[in-house]
Structures are given as C-alpha cells and as structure tokens.
Design goal:
Layout lengths: L3 E7 L6 E3 L4 E3 L5 E5 L5 H9 L2 E6 L34 H4 L6 E10 L7 E10 L2 H39 L1
Antiparallel strand pairs: 1-4, 1-5, 2-3, 6-7
Amino acid sequence: MASVIAVVRLAPGRVGYFDELTRIHLTLQTPQKPVIEGMNTTNLKKAVKSGSLQVVSGSLEPVITPSTPNVAPIYRPIKPAVVVEEVEKQPTEVEKQPIESEKIVEVVDIKPKSKKSKNAEPIKEKVTAPTKKEVTDEIKVVTKEVKNETSKIITEVEKEVTEIIDEVKKK
C-alpha cells in the first residue's frame, strides 16, 4: 500500500483549491488532505511557493530509494586509430586559367551629390560576369577532379588500413 509523504492545507484566506494532477480538492469543509507516494506533486509545489497551500507535515519531494546496486563499468578494447596524412592540393588546369566571359552586365548605383542636396547622380560601372553555361561547365570539371582525388585518397587509406590489419594479425 502507498504511504503518505506529506499533508497539505489551504493557506489562510483561501476558499478552495483543486489540483488536476493529484486530484486533491480542498475546501473550507475539508481544508487538509494527505499526499500519497507516487503522486505528481508539481502543481502542489507551485501552489506552496505562491502561498495558496501550506505543507502541514512531510515533504513534497519524492522519496529516493536505490533501485539497483552499483555495478562496475564495462570496458571495451580500443581500436587503433588510422592516421590520414593531408595532401597539399596543387592547382589544376581549370584553376590556373582565368574565367573569360562573354556577358557584360551594367550596374547602376545612385549616390547623392552631398548630404544637403537630395538630387542624385547615377554612377555607371561595367562588370563582367560569366555566363551560366560557362559556370556549369566549370563546376562539372571541378567535380570530376574532386571525385578523382577523393578516390585516390580512399584507395591509399584502404591500403594503409589493410597493412595495419596485416601487422596486427601477425602479432
């Protein structure tokens, strides 16, 4: 059977109180009720802090009982770490070549002559930008190069890992 952990009472000047979590209903006729172990006392704690309720006896904190004895931790063997060397990236042919553009974009920026005057004078600059086709072609070339480089690195790492595994098996 569940035991009583506390007894709560209406605070002076209060007419009634109802807690939906514990289903405790306090009135002037029944101003005091027990709190049973296992009840959710969250709202009761808030009511005590705000001054709506008083704790007559006991505590609204849950009773902590040790459920399991202390067990020694289980240790697992650590796998050897694989060290990957960083390879310096050499510029490719695509990176060495400047991007040539056929499309010219005109940028218009309006700046006031001075802070006092509101008349503005447009300033025109010509800016070159690559076309969409040129950009997509460059992206395709770069992605192919990146794929080739990563596949080379992966094969090198696989070789090193197999060598390490072979050394470990020999020992």
